[in-house]
Amino acid sequence: MSEERRRVLSGADILRANDRIVGEIEVPEWGGTVLLRRLSSRQIEQWDEFARQIRDPDTDLGPLDGLALMFAQMACDEQGEPLFTGADLEKLKDKAAEIMRTVVDRGAELNNIELTPDVTGDDRDTPGTSKTLQERAESKEGVNGGPEGND
What we know:
Blueprint: H1 11-16, E1 21-27, E2 32-37, H2 41-55, H3 63-74, E3 75-76, H4 89-92, H5 97-111, H6 117-120, H7 133-138
Antiparallel strand pairs: 1-2, 2-3
């Protein structure tokens, strides 16, 4: 019986490894798939600081700022490079929050981080609020609340 040899990684191997892309989510309302990347330790630290600022009543930042930032940090191309920059954050706040929240929720799950409603504006657990994309797909509803294809 031959003994399998394990490969011991060097520091250079670890730094070279592309460990950023972790998943994807189909977004039919946007006509395709969004790739999501693993956040770096630095990005998680920046996010924690940003979340503290959002919670501070003396700032002009709100939950949509948090949602836009987290979406911008997670959405990536096939090489794991971000699709958006800080300059895009205001434009992202004009996108459908329900769809962005669903994408961010998937990214948070893949990154093993917990996002709280006070920093991403997610109130779906409150009675009368919107459904997730998954719930809409299962009930054959579109984003506008009616049957898909009826705008």
